[in-house]
Design brief:
The complex is a heterodimer. Chain A is an alpha+beta fold. Chain A is built from 16 helices and 17 strands. Chain A has three domains: 8-307, no CATH class; 367-457, no CATH class; 464-523, Arc Repressor Mutant, subunit A (Orthogonal Bundle), CATH 1.10.10. In chain A, helix 9 crosses helix 10 (414-425) and helix 13 crosses helix 16. Chain A is 36% helix and 20% strand. In chain A, the strands form four sheets. Chain A has a nine-stranded mixed beta sheet. A three-stranded mixed beta sheet of chain A has the order 3-16-17. In chain A, strands 5-4-15 form a three-stranded antiparallel beta sheet, with no helix packed on it. Chain A is elongated. Chain B is an alpha/beta fold. Chain B has a domain at 2-285 and 471-516: Amidase signature (AS) domain (Amidase signature (AS) enzymes). Chain B is built from 16 helices and twelve strands. In chain B, the strands form two sheets. A ten-stranded mixed beta sheet of chain B has the order 2-1-4-6-5-10-11-9-7-8, with helices on both faces. A two-stranded antiparallel sheet of chain B has the order 3-12. The chains are: A alpha+beta, B alpha/beta. Chain A binds chain B through residues 67, 70-79, 106, 108, 110, 112, 115-118, 172, 174, 176, 302, 304-306, 309-312, and chain B through 81-83, 91, 96, 99, 101-103, 105, 229-234, 236-238, 264-268, 344-345, 347-348, 350-354, 356-358, 365, 367-369, 372, 392, 395-397, 400, 404.
C-alpha cells in the first residue's frame, strides 16, 4: 500500500491533476472495495423533456400533467431544446465528448408511475461519453490526508423521469402522482473507480458544485433533484473484481456514505464467512442504517429496449471545427462559448490571485454566495487575503451559522465587513473588537457602520504614546512589585502585565504592551 | 342530390354561386349516411352534434364571400383512430369504447380550420390491425358493391350505364357480402357511397390503399412525414401515415394541400411543398419512366388483376412513357419483416393501455397486476393481444438479435432496392394493390387475421417499409361488378408528381361513378 502525501496548496495549476490516484487503505488489510456511481440529475428547466408542460417542484399532485405525460394515445414526444443545451453544457464541463449523433430508446416496464409503459432514454448512443470528473477527497475525521482523485464518466444520457406511486397497504391500493413524470434527467454513469464512501461523497459534492454553477441542476438532493445509485463490490487486490450489488436511490450525501460503508462491511463479512455476494438491487434504510434487498419482482427486468421511433436521431454540430457543416439542431460551440468558470477553476484562481490555501479555497468555493462575498471584500483597498479568510471563515461564518443564516442573507454586507477588515488591517482596532463589531451587526442588528460603532463605543486601539503613559502609571502604582522584579524576581512580570492589560481595557496590542513594559522595567 | 357525388371543385363552385349551400349538402350527406347505415361504415352514434351548426357557419361564410379554404363546407369523415377533442374516439376497441380525447389530431385540426364539415368517425379493424375491416367491436363494414343497396354506375359523360347489360349491382345471397378491405374500410365506404367527399385513413401496411382498391375510390398513402401523425393513434410509428380517400385524384390533392406540412408536435414530420398546388388540367406522361417490378407478379394473383396491370402498362407505353421491367429482390421478405417489426412496436405502444389514466378499466381487488391483466384481456381483442405477445417475445434480450435487429436489416435492404431503382432514372412504379378484387366475407373469414394480413398486404407493405408515397387508383369493374385497381409508387417526397400520373390514368380509364339511390 502506497500512500502519497502531498502538500497540495503549493501545486501549480498546470500540474494540478498529475497526482497519482491515491487509494485509501485496504479494508481489514485485505479487501479492496470498488464503487461505481450512477447519478440522476434533474435538469433545471421550465418545462418537461418531451412536452411543454410546466416542471415546477412541489405543486399539488397531478397538476403538472399533460396528455403526453399521461400517455394518451396519439401523443408524440418533442425534445426540449433547453435540456439538450444543459446536457451539452454538463458534458463539456466534465470534459466529455459530445456526440454529433445521439439516439433515443424505449426502456419498457409495467408500472403505474410510468403511464406509457416505457421510459424514453438513451442507451447505445448517448448525447455524450468518455468524460472525467476530478475532485478533492478531504475528510479530516477519518483520514488526515487531502488528495486528488479522478473518475471516468462513461456516458451522459438524456432521459425522462417517472411519476411517483404510493402503495396504500391499508386499503390495498396504489396512488399515483404524475407531476414528476417526464421531467428531464441527465443520467451520468461513472466508472467503478472509487474505493470508499468518502470518495463517493467527494465525487457527488464536486458534481453538485459543477452542476449548480452551470445552472443545469438544482442539486437539491432532498427534493430528489439529484439521486445516486451505487454499485459496490469488494475483492482481494490480486483477484478479479467481486460480484457487485446495487444500492438504489440514495438521496443524501450522508446516506450515500453510510450505505456504501455498510455494504462494504456486509460483503466483507459474507466473503470472510465463505459466503457468496449475490448480484442484486438493494435499498438503504435510513433508520436502521442498513441496506435491504429489494423484492425480485422490482429488480429483475428484461427491459426490451427498442429505438424510439417518434424521435429522429439528434444531430449536433461544432462550429469550432474546421470544415464543419452546420446541419443539426444545435451548435456545440455556442454552448462552449457560454461556459461558466468551474469550481476547480475558481479554486485555482482564488489560490493564485490571493495566495490563499487550498483548504480555504475549497470552503469558499463550496458555496457560490460565499465566493461572491469573498471576492467582493477582496475587490477593494488591497485587503489581506489571509486576514479576510480568517475573519470571514472562522468568525463571520461562525456567528451567522449559529444564527442559522446563510451567507446570501448575511446581515453584514460585504462592504461593511470590508470596513472591519480595513480597521483591523490598519491597526485601528484589535481582533477582539472586530468580533464585537460583527456580533453587534449580525446579532444585535446594529445598523451603523463599523467605524461609527468603534467611535461610539470608544473601541479604537490605543496609540503607542497612550500605552506608554498607562504603563508609566502602572509602574508608579505598583512600585513594590517593580522593585521585586528589578531585584531579579522575574516571575512577577506576569503580575505587572496583568495590571497593564486591565488598564488598557483590551484596546491595546498585547505584544506592544508586553514590549513596552519590559523595556521600562529593564531600563533602570 | 347530384352535387354530393360530384367533385369538390364542382361543389365549391355551386356554394360560391349560391346555387346550393353547405348546409343543404350536409343534410343530404346525413341522409346518405342514413341510407347506407347497414353497411356499418360509421361508428354508431358518431354523427357529430355540431355537424349542422358547422355547416350553417360555413354557409354564412359563403354568404359573406369569405370561405376559409378551397375545402370550406365539404363533408368529410375521419377514421376512428384520429383523436377528436370532445368526440369519442374508439379505435373499434373495447379498451377505448368510451374514450373522449381532450385534444385533436393535427390532421383533424387542419381539416376543421379549413372549414370542412365532420360527418362522423368511421369504423375500422380494432386499432387498425387487419385487412378486412371485419374485426371491430362494432361489427364488420360491408362493401357497397353488391351490398343490396340501390346504386347505379354513371359513365364519364354522365350517362347511366345500363347495369343489366354491363355489371351486376344486386345483393348477395344469405346475408353474405363483399368485404371492404382494411383496416380503413369505413372511410372507403363513406367516400364510395358519397356520404362524405373526403375521409382520412391510416396506412401502415396498406390500410388505405387496400380498401380504396376494393371500394373503387382513390386512396393515397403520402410520403412518411408529409402528413403529421400527432393524434393518430399509433400502430407502428415508423410506418404509420395518415392516408386520404376521395373519389377523384384532384379531390385527394386538394385534401393533401390542407393536411400536409411540418407540425411542431410531430418530430418526424417534414416541411411540405404541397401546401398550395394544383394538379395540371391535362397531365402529361411524356418521357416518364415507369418501372414494372417483376417480383409483384405473385402466385395466386387473379388474371383480371394481371390484365388491368398489363393494360395500363401498355397504355402508358403507347402514350409516350417508357415502361421497363425492374427488380425489387427483397420485396418478398417484406411481409415476414413486417410480421416482426409490427408486433414489436405494437407491444411497446400498447403497454399504455392499462385503464389507469383513461379508457376501460376492469376492477380487481386482488392486486394492481390483476387489474392490468383483466383490463387488457377484456379491453383488447385476440389479434391485438397476440401481436403484443409476439412483439414482447421478439424484443427479449435473447431474441432481439435474431428477430428484431435482423428485421431492421431486412427493412434497410428493402429500402435500398427502391433507391437502386430510382437511381436508374425510374420515376414511378406501377403495381397491383391486391391479388384480386374484393372477397366475400364468408371466404375471407376462413383464414385468421394474421394470414389474411400476410396475403393482402403483399403489394402494399414495402412502400411503408421505405416511407414512399403510393396511391391506389380504380381502373375498371370486373364481371362481378367489383372494382379493380392499380397502385403507383414514387420516390420519397414525389407525391405531387405521382398524383399527376395518377390523374392521367384516371382520365384515360374513365372509371364509372357509383351513384347511390337514396331510399
Amino acid at each position: 500500500m502506497r500512500i502519497v502525501h502531498r502538500k497540495l496548496f503549493t501545486v501549480k495549476t498546470s500540474k494540478f491533476y498529475s497526482t497519482v490516484n491515491i487509494k485509501p487503505a485496504l479494508y481489514r488489510n485485505v479487501w479492496r472495495p470498488v464503487i461505481g456511481l450512477e447519478v440522476h440529475a434533474q435538469i433545471l428547466s421550465a418545462s418537461k423533456l418531451f412536452s411543454r408542460v410546466c416542471a415546477k417542484y412541489g405543486a399539488p399532485p397531478n397538476t403538472q400533467v399533460g396528455i403526453f405525460e399521461a400517455a394518451h394515445p396519439g401523443t408524440l414526444p418533442v425534445l426540449n431544446k433547453r435540456c439538450v443545451e444543459a446536457a451539452i453544457n454538463t458534458a463539456l464541463a466534465l470534459q466529455a465528448q459530445v456526440n454529433k449523433v445521439s439516439r433515443f430508446d424505449r426502456k419498457h416496464y409495467f408500472y403505474p408511475d410510468l403511464p406509457a409503459g416505457y421510459q424514453i432514454t438513451q442507451k447505445d448512443c448517448p448525447i455524450a461519453s468518455n468524460g472525467r470528473i476530478n475532485f478533492i477527497v478531504s475528510n479530516p475525521a477519518s483520514n488526515p490526508k487531502i488528495y486528488h482523485h479522478s473518475v471516468r464518466l462513461v456516458q451522459l444520457q438524456l432521459e425522462e423521469d417517472s411519476g411517483k406511486s404510493i402503495h396504500d397497504a391499508e386499503f390495498n391500493r396504489v396512488l399515483v402522482d404524475l407531476n414528476r413524470a417526464g421531467l428531464p434527467l441527465m443520467e451520468l454513469v461513472f466508472a467503478p473507480e472509487l474505493h470508499d464512501g468518502e470518495e463517493a461523497a467527494a465525487l457527488v459534492k464536486e458534481l453538485s458544485l459543477i452542476l449548480s454553477k452551470l445552472g443545469t441542476c438544482s442539486c437539491k438532493m432532498e427534493e430528489g433533484a439529484l439521486r445516486v445509485d451505487a454499485n459496490i463490490s469488494v475483492h482481494k487486490e490480486s483477484e478479479p473484481l467481486g460480484e457487485r450489488t446495487e444500492v438504489k436511490n440514495l438521496n443524501s450525501i450522508r446516506s450515500l456514505v453510510r450505505a456504501i460503508n455498510y455494504e462494504i462491511e456486509r460483503q466483507v463479512d459474507i466473503l470472510e464467512g465463505s459466503g457468496m455476494v449475490v448480484n442484486e438491487t438493494r435499498r438503504f434504510d435510513n433508520v436502521s442504517g442498513k441496506t435491504i434487498k429489494m423484492r425480485d419482482k422490482d429488480t429483475i427486468h428484461d427491459y426490451r429496449f427498442m429505438p424510439e421511433p417518434n424521435l429522429p436521431p439528434l444531430w449536433l454540430y461544432d462550429s469550432s471545427e474546421p470544415n464543419y457543416i452546420p446541419s443539426g439542431s444545435l451548435d456545440i460551440n455556442v454552448v462552449r462559448k457560454d461556459m461558466k468558470e468551474l469550481p476547480e477553476e475558481t479554486r485555482q484562481r482564488l489560490m493564485k490571485e490571493y495566495g490563499i490555501s487550498l483548504e480555504n479555497a475549497m470552503i469558499l468555493v463550496n458555496d457560490n454566495s460565499l465566493t461572491k462575498y469573498f471576492t467582493a471584500v477582496m475587490a477593494q483597498n488591497q485587503r489581506q487575503a489571509r486576514l479576510v479568510c480568517n475573519l470571514l471563515l472562522n468568525n463571520l461564518l461562525g456567528i451567522i451559522n449559529s444564527l442559522d443564516i446563510s451567507i446570501e442573507n448575511c446581515p453584514m454586507a460585504a462592504s461593511s465587513f470590508g470596513e472591519v477588515v480595513d480597521l483591523l488591517q490598519n491597526g485601528l482596532i484589535l481582533h477582539a473588537i472586530a468580533l464585537k463589531i460583527i456580533h453587534a451587526v449580525c446579532v444585535d442588528g446594529d445598523s451603523r457602520t463599523p467605524t461609527e460603532i468603534v467611535l461610539a463605543n470608544n473601541w479604537s486601539k490605543f496609540s503607542d504614546e497612550l500605552i506608554d503613559g498607562i504603563i508609566e502609571q502602572v509602574i508608579k502604582n505598583n512600585f513594590a512589585v517593580v522593585e521585586k522584579y528589578r531585584r531579579g524576581k522575574k516571575k512577577v512580570f506576569k503580575t505587572l502585565m496583568g495590571k497593564a492589560v486591565a488598564a488598557t481595557e483590551s484596546r491595546a496590542d498585547m505584544q506592544k504592551v508586553n514590549d513596552i513594559l519590559k523595556n521600562k522595567l529593564d531600563e533602570e | 342530390m347530384k352535387c354530393l357525388s360530384g367533385s369538390i371543385k364542382n361543389a365549391v363552385q355551386l356554394f360560391k354561386q349560391k346555387q346550393i349551400s353547405p348546409l343543404e349538402v350536409c343534410e343530404a350527406a346525413l341522409r346518405r349516411q342514413e341510407t347506407i347505415s347497414r353497411l356499418n361504415a360509421y361508428i354508431p352514434n358518431a354523427v357529430v352534434e355540431t355537424t349542422k351548426s358547422e355547416a350553417l357557419l360555413s354557409s354564412q361564410r359563403y354568404e359573406k364571400g369569405t370561405p376559409l379554404s378551397p375545402l370550406d363546407g365539404i363533408p368529410i369523415a375521419l377514421k376512428d383512430n384520429f383523436c377528436t377533442a370532445g368526440i369519442r374516439t374508439t379505435c373499434g376497441s373495447n379498451m377505448l369504447k368510451n374514450y373522449v380525447p381532450i385534444f385533436s389530431a393535427t390532421v383533424a385540426e387542419r381539416l376543421q380550420k379549413a372549414g370542412t364539415i365532420l360527418m362522423g368517425k368511421t369504423n375500422l379493424d380494432e386499432f387498425a390491425m387487419g385487412s378486412g375491416t371485419v374485426d371491430s367491436i362494432f361489427g364488420p363494414v360491408k362493401n357497397i358493391h353488391r351490398s343490396g343497396l340501390c346504386y347505379k354506375f354513371i359513365d364519364t359523360s354522365g350517362e347511366a350505364i345500363h347495369t343489366s347489360a354491363m355489371k351486376p349491382t344486386g345483393g348477395l345471397e344469405k346475408d353474405d357480402f363483399y368485404i371492404t378491405g382494411g383496416s380503413s374500410g369505413g372511410s372507403a365506404v363513406a367516400v364510395a357511397a358519397a356520404s362524405a367527399f373526403l375521409a382520412t385513413g391510416s396506412d401502415t401496411g396498406g390500410s388505405v390503399r387496400n380498401p380504396a382498391s376494393f371500394c373503387g375510390v382513390v386512396g393515397l398513402k403520402p410520403s412518411y412525414g408529409v402528413v403529421p401523425r400527432h393524434g393518430l393513434i399509433s400502430l407502428v410509428n415508423s410506418m404509420d401515415v395518415p392516408g386520404l380517400f376521395a373519389r377523384t385524384v384532384d379531390d385527394v390533392a386538394a385534401m393533401l394541400a390542407v393536411i400536409s406540412g411540418l407540425d411542431p408536435k410531430d418530430s418526424t414530420s417534414v416541411p411540405s411543398n404541397m401546401k398550395t398546388f394544383e394538379l395540371p388540367e391535362s397531365p402529361s406522361i411524356e418521357g416518364l419512366v415507369v418501372g414494372i417490378p417483376k417480383e409483384y407478379h405473385r402466385p395466386g394473383m387473379s388474371s383480371e388483376i394481371i390484365d388491368v396491370w398489363t393494360m395500363i402498362a401498355d397504355l402508358l407505353e403507347n402514350k409516350g412513357a417508357k415502361v421497363r421491367e425492374v427488380s425489387l429482390p427483397h420485396t418478398k421478405y417484406s411481409i415476414v419483416c413486417y410480421s416482426i417489426l409490427n408486433p414489436c412496436e405494437v407491444a411497446s405502444n400498447f403497454t399504455r393501455y392499462t385503464g389507469v389514466e383513461y379508457g376501460q378499466r376492469m376492477n380487481s381487488s386482488q392486486s394492481m397486476e390483476a387489474m392490468y391483466a383483466l383490463t387488457r384481456s377484456q379491453g383488447l381483442n385476440n389479434v391485438v393481444r397476440s401481436r403484443i405477445l409476439a412483439g414482447n417475445y421478439f424484443l427479449l434480450e435473447e431474441n432481439k438479435e435474431k428477430y428484431f435487429k435482423q428485421a431492421l436489416k431486412v427493412r434497410r435492404l428493402i429500402c435500398q432496392d427502391f433507391n437502386k431503382v430510382w437511381s436508374e432514372k425510374v420515376n414511378l412504379l406501377l403495381t397491383p394493390v391486391t391479388l384480386s378484387a374484393s372477397l366475400r366475407y364468408s371466404e375471407f373469414i376462413k383464414y385468421d387475421n394474421r394470414s389474411q394480413t400476410a396475403t393482402q398486404d403483399i403489394c402494399t407493405q414495402s412502400a411503408n417499409m421505405a416511407g414512399l408515397p403510393a396511391v391506389s387508383i380504380p381502373i375498371s369493374l370486373n364481371d362481378e361488378g367489383l372494382p379493380l385497381a392499380l397502385q403507383l409508387m414514387a420516390p420519397m417526397g414525389k407525391d405531387v408528381e405521382m398524383l399527376s400520373a395518377a390523374k392521367w390514368i384516371e382520365q384515360q380509364v374513365g372509371y364509372p361513378k357509383l351513384r347511390v339511390i337514396d331510399t
